[in-house]
Design a protein that fits this description.
The chain has 13 helices and 2 strands, in the order αβααααααααβαααα. The chain has a two-stranded antiparallel ribbon with strand order 1-2. It is globular.
Length: 254
Amino acid sequence: MSNEVRSYGWEAQPRDLSIVLSGKKNIRDPKPQTVASNKLPDAPLAKSVLEYAERELSTETFNHSMRVYYYGNDSLRAEHETYAEPLSGKAIQTQQFPEWRFTDETYLLACLLHDIGTTDKNISATKMSFEFYGGFLAHSLLSQELHAPIAQAESVVEAIIRHQDIGDSGKITTAGLLLQLATIFDNMGGHKELVHEDTIADVTRHYPRNKWSSCFAATIRKENELKPWAHTTALGEEDFPNGVLNNKVMEPYD
């Protein structure tokens, strides 16, 4: 297997989470993690995309994107941690599931850009579903403007396009699956057993939800009204926004 496939999260994983989790709610009980214990990637590419996201996204969407990053890291810990000290995200992956070894930077880029298609400007600029248009925007930014490695840029684009591609057949990339898990968790409280409650409290202190449930539900409805054919409708034209609004896990933090 090529280094690019492993480094940038291209390895195939089942879309069926019951297979990924071996039929359990989690592999191991999660332990608390803090924002302070997870240093953000600080290479020029990551810094440039972070600045772009802060500039282009609303505060609510930017905070959601950062929560997805930190919950995603914590999801890896919840699934794979051996709890030997000291630990880092890379050690967890290496010790438990070496096939999940891909760069923190790749995942951060996917998190920061996964909802770029939902901005007021972008959602109205195309007839394409927001994930697909967001993928186009991300590809242009990463490959043409910032000259990211092609395999890395394309992995990010694939994850963005498929982050709402939920199902139980076929495969998805490792980066795409992790992005799915973390977005479902933040948006709907799905798979709550993967993340410790203390982690939620710490992450939301740093990146407040600011009524994210009602904000994102309104975005879903706007997308579906503008584009009745949108891929978002596959999640349920009423079930999806109502599920977001009824996110009981995040309700205390909203």
